[in-house]
Amino acid sequence: MKKAFLWVAILFTFTGLLAGCGSSEKSSGEEDKIVIGYFPNINHVPAMVAKDQGYFEKQLGDGTKVEYKTFAEGGSFMTALKTGDIDAGLVGPGPAMNNFSTGADVKIIAGASTGGTVVLAREGLEINSLEDFQGKTFITPGVGCTHDVQYETYLEEAGITSARIGGTMKHLTGNPAQYASMLKTGKVDIAVAPEPWAAVIEQETNAEVVIGWDEVSFGETLPASVLVATGDAVEDSPEKVQKIVNAHKDAIKFIEENPEEAKAITIKDIKEVTGQELEKEVVDRAWGRIGFTYDVDVDTIQDFADSSYTLKFLKDKPEFSELIANNFIK
Predict the structure, then answer these.
(1) Hey, which family's this protein in (predicted)?
(2) Main-chain phi, psi angles of 181, to 5 degrees
(3) Mind listing the domains of the chain with CATH numbers?
(4) Which helix (H) or strand (E) holds 272?
(5) R_g (Cα) of the chain, nearest Å
(6) Is residue 37 classed as helix, strand or coil in its secondary structure?
(7) Paired sense of beta strands 107-115 and 88-91, if any
(8) What's the CA gap between 319 and 224, in Å, rounded?
(9) In this predicted model, what pLDDT tens digit does every residue of 20-54 receive, in sequence order?
């Protein structure tokens, strides 16, 4: 009898090892799984609402388990998409375009939000003209991220560039949730912040908004976040991708019809992810600087990409007609 139990244990162990080695065949009745990625900022509220309301589960059905993974910046998100750690999610258009231009398998399948990029100067720093940005240290979530390109494009038009391409501005990257303390200590002079962190900075410091969300380049027209998936998913599983987009559209409709409830969901989700509880006043201020839409402005995407090339974030002059799969939002 003991031998029988021993062989059963060995059999289960061997079976478990096979499963751990990535066997792609599912046993009868086994759940499918998708992982949705997003960032803990207000441009990514559609993902938070979809998560809270169970929209992905409703669209994909009981046979699919939905999990969520959060990111602080676009580079790690795109790595996760490329490695299959996530299946879809919200990211800034900058990382999506940068990775597409180097051959990454990524498709924009819907818009998500616009606006929400605010540039602030630490207390006591005199910024009275564009020339005053020369030699200053600025911080963005990532090199070549959406907010970085918006900021550098705005200044490049005045002939001011970062040290990365021969200019005088020094560039740091970091988690936007830490920008307020970095400004207070003088570690950075300028913070290029996505909402709600710009509103947090205004509340916690005496930092001054020096470039508003509607003044910074592409501020009112560029998708601040987009819904992406892999090209393989778009080609091989269009029905599943359509359901993901449908859930995303449901979330945006909810935001439009229930803004106060959507704000409460945002406060709750950001606290769970970052440990920081935003005050309602902060969220209200940030909310006024963004919009939510699943449409994608294709021309603006190309203009933004051309600017990324000019700023040398992209090695080759881009053409993004194949990046956007608009058929899922029609």
Answers:
(1) Belongs to the bacterial solute-binding protein SsuA/TauA family.
(2) -70, -35
(3) 32-115+221-328 (3.40.190.10), 117-211 (3.40.190.10)
(4) helix 259-274
(5) 22
(6) strand
(7) unpaired
(8) 20
(9) 433 333 444 556 999 999 999 899 999 999 999 99
